[in-house]
Amino acid sequence: MRYYAIVSIAYVSVFGNRNLEMILLENRKSTDPVYFHIDVNNAFLSWEALYQMEEFGSTEDIREQDAIIGGDISTRHGVVLAKSQSAKKYGIQTGEPVISAMKKCPGLVRYTPHHEYYKKQSGKLMELFRTYAPVVDQYSIDEAFLDMSGTYSLYGNPVTFAYRLKDEIRDTLGFTVNIGISSNRLLAKMASDFTKPDRVHTLFPDEIREKMWPLPVEDLFYVGKSTAAKLHSLGLHTIGDVARCDLAVMRSHFKSHGEVIYNFANGIDLTLEDRTEAVQKGYGNSTTIPYDIKESEAAYHTIMKLCESVCSRMRRDHVQALVLSVELKDSNFVVRRHQRTLLSPTDVTDECYAVACELFDELWDGSPIRLIGVTANKVEDAGNRQLNLFDMDSHDKKHNLDTALDSIREKYGKDAVRRGSFFDKTPPRG
């Protein structure tokens, strides 16, 4: 069965913000894979605007001001978490010190972040997604992937439905989103980053050459500043340049990362694809903290939450990791990393947590911490674990307990069960 878009003046007039190209792209099989990537436009600033209206009855939209969301300037370590479009014109960057941003724009207005409120708004958004999508994979606090494959019979053409969903979010929740649509997650995410705000974009494989290849290499997923600079030195300035480059050249200069970005430039999804197609090489999670962590107890608490996230994803995918690493970024943006090879691969939260805390203790020099990350690498199928006589019984019991907790949280929410270690001041070891 195939479905077709009917292009007419009347049709275009109903969807005035949709261009003719998008309508023509609706001519696709109803059985094709379809992914949405939905990203809140300037999430923290949008949610803070709602907070100011709800809590203080503000009639002024802070998104129209020279405004930032940032930490306390008195500490001299507060950083910019979000900025308005007008503030951006002054060269203010996300992540730079608030005191630096104030110097760039003397009339800048700073709003203290209200993270609990932001989490509440994020929860409302995810709840709305789950009323429509068979599978919702939350990627961060303000973005998610929706697997909309096979929903044509429910909602009709996915592009048309995406506009309906976008408008519903704006009208019911009070903030705008971008929706990217494609046959894989990578391209859907790339599409959602096109022109903002409050837009729907498609990026199917047959659109890559026209829509993605002309973009600068900096816009490609997984390409940071240092990688971009090296690509430029090789004469590769656009995503198309990378896509057309010899793979052997990419490997020689960037090793395995070169192959990843080469595939991404050609629209081949390796890390975001359906987990039934390929097992991830690693599982990681990190969090940027809006305040300085100066005590190890607070760091342990954060590490536990990160280990919970990483290990639950491994258990979901039936894999275990042999290498664990911890990353720290201090208030001066100095990054430190440390890793350890485990005696046996594991997906048990407490086992990963104990090792992560030991790595943290070895790594931390007492500097105020702004980011903590935990990554599990050298991943293999869970069925391949070779247990020794000393950990077999303990490991199985912990794994079964974690699996039960996963089921409870999936059914009743992530906060339905909390570990006792969250209330302890010191982490369990061993």
Largest sheet: 5 strands, mixed
Just give the CATH class of the largest domain: Alpha Beta
Alpha plus pi helix count: 17
First and last CA, distance:
58 Å
What's the total number of strands? Answer: 12
Percentage of residues assigned to helices: 40-55%
Query: What is the CATH architecture term of the largest domain?
Result: 2-Layer Sandwich
The strand order across the widest sheet is: 5-6-1-7-8
Q: Uncertain segments of ≥5 residues (pLDDT<50)?
A: 1-17, 273-280, 387-392, 421-425
Strand content: 15-25%
Order of helices and strands: HHEHEEHHEHEEHHEHEHHHHHEHEEHEH
Q: Averaging pLDDT over every residue, what do you get? A: 82
Described by the principal axes of the CA atoms, the overall outline is globular
Structural class: alpha+beta
Rg over C-alpha atoms, rounded to the nearest angstrom? 23 Å
CATH third-level topology of the largest domain:
Alpha-Beta Plaits
The tally of domains stands at: 3
Give the full name of the CATH homologous superfamily of the largest domain.
Reverse transcriptase/Diguanylate cyclase domain
